[in-house]
Structure formats: structure tokens, C-alpha cells
Design brief:
By secondary structure, the protein is an alpha/beta fold. The protein contains 10 helices and 17 strands.
Amino acid sequence: MDKLTETRDLLGQLIAFPTVSSESNLALIDYLADRLSDAGARVEVHKDATGAKANLFATIGPEVEGGILLSGHSDVVPVADQAWTTDPFAMTERDGRLYGRGTCDMKGFIAAAVAMAPHYARVAKTRPVHFAFTHDEELGCLGAQALAKVLRERPVRPSVAIIGEPTLMQVIEGHKGCYEYSVHFTGLEGHGSHPDRGVNAVEYAVRYVARLLELREVLKETSPKDSRFEPPWTTINTGALVGGTAHNVIAGKARIDWEMRPVQPGDADLVKSEMHSFCTHHLLPQMRAVCPEADIVTEVIGEVDGLVPATANEARDIVLGLTGANGAGLVPFGTEAGIFQSLGMSAVICGPGSIEQAHKPDEYLSIEQLSQCLSMLERLGGRLGA
């Protein structure tokens, strides 16, 4: 069986594990652990506090510093209420494309990396290759952050990280951070004919959003002059405002879901400080003047640092050499790359498939893209020997 056929079959098996973020990924992690163990890897499985999710970390080659990490997340987004024309968890091949949830985001890269493990076991004589397959990337990179805590305590860890998110095999050296929050407003219900006797949680939530929109305009004016991002400034987006029960009832509860994508760490600090001050000195005193129990609680869904473009970047230079690309670009979406960069690793993003297909019904990965990924990973073996 040729390597492409083997990888395609392996991808089909991975797609069959419905590792939606709300569900366990243990069966998939156990399957990958067995495949890597059979290839000669030293495999670790690290479960989360619930015991229902796990990260996999594996090593092939000598136990020395300077290893190359191949990273991918095992979870996928839901398929509920999406108009799929095929079974999302049974991979279907049609017209040179492989359809299924997670084909490009990002089980295609995982399949290619695992398929290359026996090859790495033969050639990794002086430099190790590591595998990191995480849980809950789609929920704020929770698995990668937990893995980072484990790796930070080790005297020997990788120096290069290649994250296989879908980039059409283009080399990506930077992206914005992603900070996500849910803000919960507790007011005081009452009859709509006497609004002054209650605390309308929806109305205070609206004022909160209005302040966010003011800060959004401020951030446009303070973006770095040399920013290569598109758009070049830190963005703020309100994803949802939920609250209230009826037309004539003062809303006692409300929730805002919002995010920001910083181009520089100071922007995140500014927004968080300004919103905390606005709640503390303006909204809460007015709410509690009517109802002392009124409250605003901010729930941190995830705070994931961006991947900062660096002049010296071994990971970028390695992948440029492997792919033959002339340069590296930036993307607007977030990944786990910044987490590995925070550990002192150089990091780069390069993987098969298009982000335009991710999270959509009939998600697909072209066989051509999968083949290109395999070729890159096979050439990577030349960096591991004497």
C-alpha cells in the first residue's frame, strides 16, 4: 500500500470518531496512541480533570533537546443544524475530495503525521520528532494550554513547532490572539410599566456593548504603523446578546458573548482595564442603587496569545525549505501556535486544506493537498538524521 492510500484510509478512521468538542476524545486518543506505539514512539496520554478528555504527547528519536513538534487538535466543531449531503462522520471520496467533519480542520494533518511515524522511527538518529494531539482547541485551546504546563516543567523539550492547521500548505508565521468572554448580567425583574422599579439586565448589557464599540474605534487609531495583519488593528466582535423573557417584563438576566483579536498584548490589557473600570464605576453603582444584589460577572472562555512574527524563526525557515515557498504570510484566525511560542519554541503554521472549508457543512480536503502535506513531512525526515 502506498503512503497516500494508507494516509487516506487512516483519515477515514479518524473521521469516524465523532470528537465534537462537547464529547469525549478518549477513543480517538487511544487509537492514535496505539498507532504511534506500534511505530516505536514513546507515548504519553494526559487526561483533563474530568477524565473525559486527553492530550497525547509522543516522541520518536533520542531524548535530547531541539526536537521538532508536529501539532494538531483532535476536536471538531458540531454538525447540528448543518445541511450535510453526506454522513459527516463517514468519510466520502468524490471528485478528488475527501468529505467529512474534520478532514481539513484538522485530522488530515494528524493522519499524515501519524502515517509518517514508521519513517521517522528509521531516520530520527540525532534529532527527535514529537507529536502533540490536543483536546478542546475549538473551546479556547484548553488542551494545548494544559500541555504547555506539562512541557514547561521538563528539562528536555522541543525547540520547533509545526502546527498543521489548514493553510493550503502555505507557510504562516503569524496570527492575532483570540480572547473570548461571556459577560453575565443579573438585574431585577418587574412589570414593564414601571421600568424604574427594576434593573433591566438587557439594557445594561446594551450599554456594555456600546462601550465595546467605542473601544473598537479607539483600537483602529492605535494600531501599529507596520502591522501586516488584515485588518491591521485589534478587532472586537459581539457574537451574541441574550436576555429577557417577554415584552412586558423587565429583563432580570442577560448575557453577552464577545471576543477580541489583539495584534499586540497591550491592546488586550487596555480593553480589559477599560471594561472593568466601566462596570465598576458606572454600571454596577447604578444597578445596585436599585437592587444591591445586582451583578456583572465576566466568564473567561479563553485567552490565547497570538503567534508573533519573529525575525529569527527556525520553524519557519525549516518549512520554507521543505515546501520550496518563497516567503511566509499571516492569517486572521487563531491557532495553538502562540502557546508553543510562549514556551520558547519557534513556531510556524502549515497544513493541508483551506480554512474556508472549516466549520462548514460538507467540509472537505482535496487529495492533492493531503499528498503535498505527506511530501513535506517525508522531507522533514531528512532533518532528523545524522
